[in-house]
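Hi both,

Apologies for the delay on this - the queue was longer than expected. I finally got the magnesium ion-bound model through. Below you'll find the protein sequence and the ligand SMILES exactly as submitted, and right after that the structure tokens for the full complex including the ligand.
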Amino acid sequence: MSRVAVLKGGRSLERQVSLRSGARVQDALERLGHQVVAIDAGPDLIQRLRDASPEVAFVAMHGRDGEDGTIQELLEVLGLPYTGSGVAACIRCWDKVLTKHLLRDVGIPTPDFHAFSETAFRELGAAQALPAIGRQLDFPLVVKPAAQGSALGIKFAPTAADVPAAIVSAFSYDRKVLLERYVPGRDLAVSIVEEDGEARALPVVEAVAEGRDFYDFEARYEIGRTRFVCPAELAEGVAERTQELAVEAYRALGCAGFARIDLMLREDGQLFVLEANSVPGLTETSLLPQAADAAGIPFDALVERILAIALSRQPA
Ligand SMILES: Nc1ncnc2c1ncn2[C@@H]1O[C@H](COP(=O)(O)OP(=O)(O)O)[C@@H](O)[C@H]1O
Ligand SMILES: [Mg+2]
């Protein structure tokens, strides 16, 4: 039995999901007999952690602060062990551009891309490079903010004329924008949880769009017009290949404890890694718990395992 601080909420755009993840983790920890203090992360975070003096922190915060390494950095300062990836891996996963460079450097396929900061457009006339980017990456072009999750700020630009507005929209989420080659195919996710120090891939989940709003991924996620199939129905050997690639990406990014890797399976069978999520959702409808369930790991056992990994590590 441990004294556990569950960190949830925060001020990110994914606050609501995080509150649900946190509440569910808290319930599980209590059922498991742990002593739980739930903290909605705000300006009094440090004081509340000092008052509660937990042995370990369970980070259930998605998006900014929880996934970008900020909370992890504070926990390092306090010398408190915590769940999931360390500061550096969080920074690598939170920035999709950095993620993609790291993956490409080690030969893990990720869609072709170019990325620019706001200042490149404002001060260096990067807009004049857009026609060349369009020719290289083709249309539709995927435009996304370098950071964020849950499809926030992602737009599909069917033609060159749609690119500027998509870029403006992405810049409302981050100072860096990613222009990426569109991959026609299936939307897959592989959750990874470590077992005896080894990254283990859970069954592949496929996100299937229900509507015909092909280019509007934001709406698709918000309105829930997406059905999740787990295990995904894939041709012989494809699930294994997808899981192996996800584990490779997990290792390349230096993730720890657990994470979720999002991929595309192109129509010709080629796989591409899109991104890694360092604190994937843990709600009733989230992909990681669903995948764990399909692997015969109930939610409470999943939470216990993630906590045990954190406790077995000493903070740096
Ligand atoms: N290059 C791409 N080609 C096709 N679909 C994409 C591409 N990039 C993103 N998508 C779609 O948008 C979704 C969200 O993109 P992702 O990169 O995972 O960002 P996030 O989940 O952080 O918002 C993906 O699951 C996929 O459905
Ligand atoms: Mg994703």
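Main takeaway for now: The chain is about 40% helix and 25% strand.

I'll put the files on the shared drive as well.

H.
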